[in-house]
Design a protein that fits this description.
The protein is mostly helical. The chain is 61% helix and 4% strand. The protein folds into three domains: 3-86 and 185-246, no CATH class; 96-180 and 252-334, Zincin-like (2-Layer Sandwich); 384-635, no CATH class. It has helices at residues 3-42, 57-80, 85-92, 104-120, 154-159, 162-177, 180-209, 216-262, 265-279, 305-308, 314-321, 325-334, 380-392, 395-400, 404-417, 423-429, 436-449, 454-465, 470-485, 492-505, 524-537, 542-553, 571-581, 586-600, 608-620, and strands at residues 95-96, 126-130, 138-144, 147-153, 605-607, 632-634. The strands form two sheets. The chain has a four-stranded mixed beta sheet, sandwiched between helices. Strands 5-6 form a two-stranded parallel ribbon. The longest helix has 47 residues, at 216-262.
């Protein structure tokens, strides 16, 4: 199952979640009516014979009120989580981790995540830590891959070594690839609605306890409150059933994907063994129940584990990694000191592929039959490339990319380094003349590093700027746009930089996306424009360009849709087109990515500018494409 099939499966599971919710609501409504019937019998209120209770108009009003309470609970939680992962992190009281942190454990986390991010083509998440949680646990949250937060506990940072931490991070990245994050946030809101009736019962119970309960009426109110609390626990039971039905298999899939990404089962197994043998994963947070389905390990301990657990038993997860890991876990549990497990990972292939020179060629060792198969995956070559890139990046520049002000300047310097125009004139035209003394040396440094580092530098700089206030992010986008337009022309790289910056920094772009288009003909104009732009970017001209366009778009566009003139392929139109293409049905996106990649690979080699264009388009369509793909890559 590839990235697009996982996305489609997650979309369908949303429908399954709605079905579960309807069944749970029906059960809760029935129990509320039964509870109130018992209360009226206890109070000797004879509004209607019990046999006719469910046909009485009062029952309808009770049902409507119960539904209103549940819907309000769901809507309130949805409002709390309207900011996606950042909203959940704020609700939990998680502390943002400064990208420029000097704390060793936090720097280790950032290094591991950046490596995985560059290798996968997904922007690095924003980092948060739960300082008061000493157990080992973590989760990712967000509506889209480009808007993700990673939250780890303090125990995860302190107790896991680098290989174990990499295994946990790879597990969480697989949840991003598999479109689990949006479903997890929706599940929190749905369960809040189911539990809302129980919350009303708890409120009534606390209120009744402060009043006199010597009369029959007071005792009856307490009885009603207790009945609603019991209904609330029934809702909790249904909620756990829903979580278990949706979450269990996804956790095993995430474990398998993590091993596939890292080629090192010892890392993930080591983390699971530490949880199993004493460090645990249970959380003290009052929201531990809410997020039990989205964490790396169980957040709560309870009975009926086989029925209600959101995660498979730890021994099952270890056994799925290899037949001997359970035995190793038991051996370590008996031992007074835990022996370090030697890594079984070989040196990743592809390390030598990156030379830091814009003229170097890249020969990926993995050649997939279709580029879309690489979307949402990480190979040894990708990890080797990312690791070597981070090691090759000058330390002073890497540090600057973690500082918001310096990261902003790095984006401006990238534009200057890609332009043939006079940098001083460009800066003056864009209103950035006061930064001239800082930007000229930075521009020179980036130029010397070569064009192959441009996209990775963007991938490192933009997450640093995500934490800035809205007004500051808006100002950065305006200055980037002004700088690219200062010389009256926009290169492909400049378009890609501004488009990616707008995707990650603009407030409007942070909205939750939904599938709107299930047929290619609904977005035929947008596809025509995207294929036309990529055709011209490939360097083809005249009849060759028209032939390549027909070949790449065959089956996606009607014959009447022909190659657009270059004059009609403006960057503004392309941005608007990709914004609509991002809302295509997941299964329809794969052929589009393959068609665009065919245009890049038509001459048997990949220019850096073409690779940047393809990866930018894929990212804007929410299809993370790793940095290496089939074909020879040239500067």
């Amino acid at each position: 199952m590839d990235f697009f099939q996982h996305q489609e499966r997650a979309r369908r599971k949303t429908g399954l979640l709605v079905l579960y919710f309807i069944l749970a609501v029906a059960a809760v409504v029935l129990c509320v009516n039964l509870a109130l019937l018992l209360a009226f019998v206890w109070m000797d209120v004879r509004l209607v014979p019990p046999s006719q209770w469910f046909s009485h108009p009062l029952t309808l009003w009770i049902t409507l009120f119960t539904l209103l309470v549940m819907v309000c609970g769901c809507l309130f939680k949805t409002w709390q989580l309207r900011r996606g992962g950042k909203g959940l992190a704020a609700m939990l009281g998680a502390r943002p981790i400064d990208p420029d942190t000097r704390h060793g454990d936090e720097k280790k986390l950032i290094n591991v995540v950046e490596e995985m991010s560059i290798a996968s083509g997904i922007p690095a998440p924003q980092f948060y830590v739960l300082d008061k949680e000493e157990a080992i646990n973590a989760f990712v949250a967000g509506f889209r891959p480009s808007e993700t937060v990673l939250v780890v506990t303090h125990g995860t940072l302190k107790k896991l070594d680098r290989d174990e931490l990499q295994g946990v991070i790879a597990h969480e990245f697989s949840h991003i690839f598999n479109a689990d994050m949006r479903l997890n946030l929706r599940l929190i809101a749905v369960l809040a609605g189911i539990l809302a009736v129980g919350k009303i019962g708890e409120f009534m119970l606390r209120g009744s306890s402060r009043r006199s309960t010597s009369n029959r009426k007071g005792n009856s109110l307490i009885l009603v409150a207790l009945a609603l609390v019991v209904v609330g626990y029934l809702g909790l039971f249904f909620g756990r059933l829903i979580k278990a039905a949706i979450s269990r298999q996804r956790e095993l899939l995430a474990d398998a994907s993590a091993v596939q990404f890292t080629r090192n089962p010892a890392g993930l197994a080591g983390a699971l063994i530490k949880i199993r043998n004493g460090d645990g994963s249970h959380l003290d947070s009052v929201h531990a129940e809410d997020m039990s389905h989205m964490c790396f390990g169980e957040t709560l301990g309870f009975r009926f584990r086989n029925l209600l657990a959101t995660h498979p038993p730890l021994d099952d997860r270890l056994g799925a990694l290899g037949s001997d890991w359970v035995a190793r876990a038991r051996s370590r549990a008996r031992s007074a000191t835990q022996a370090a497990t030697p890594s079984t990972a070989s040196v990743p292939e592809g390390v030598s592929a990156f030379q830091g020179d814009s003229g170097a060629s890249v020969e990926p060792t993995v050649a997939e039959p279709a580029t879309s198969r690489r979307v949402g995956t990480v190979s040894d070559a990708d990890l080797g490339y990312a690791r070597t890139l981070l090691e090759t990046l000058p330390a002073d520049l890497h540090k600057k990319l973690h500082n918001p002000h310096q990261a902003e300047l790095a984006l401006y310097a990238l534009i200057l380094s890609s332009s043939d125009s006079d940098p001083q004139r460009l800066l003056q035209s864009a209103g950035l003349g006061e930064h001239l003394s800082d930007l000229l040396p930075l521009r020179q440094q980036l130029s010397e590093l070569g064009s192959r580092l441009r996209l990775p530098i963007i991938d490192l700089a933009l997450p640093t700027l995500k934490g800035q206030p809205s007004a500051q992010r808006k100002a950065i986008l305006e200055r980037l746009t002004s700088l690219t337009q200062a010389d009256q022309r926009t290169t492909l790289f400049e378009w890609a930089l501004v488009a990616l910056a707008r995707q990650q920094l603009d407030d409007h772009a942070r909205r939750n996306r939904h599938t709107r288009f299930n047929r290619y003909r609904s977005v035929a104009g947008e596809l025509q424009l995207a294929f036309s732009v990529m055709t011209w970017a490939s360097g083809a001209r005249d009849e060759q360009a028209r032939a390549l366009f027909r070949q790449a778009s065959h089956g996606l566009l009607p014959e009447a849709r022909t190659l657009l003139p270059l004059s009609q392929c403006s960057s503004q139109r392309l941005g608007q087109a990709l914004d609509r293409l991002a809302d295509l049905s997941p299964l329809l996106k794969g052929p589009v990515i393959d068609g665009l990649a065919d245009l890049v690979l038509a001459d048997g080699k990949v220019q850096v500018s073409e690779a940047e264009m393809l990866r930018a388009i894929a990212a804007l369509m929410e299809c993370p494409l790793p940095p290496l793909f089939a074909g020879r890559q040239h500067g």
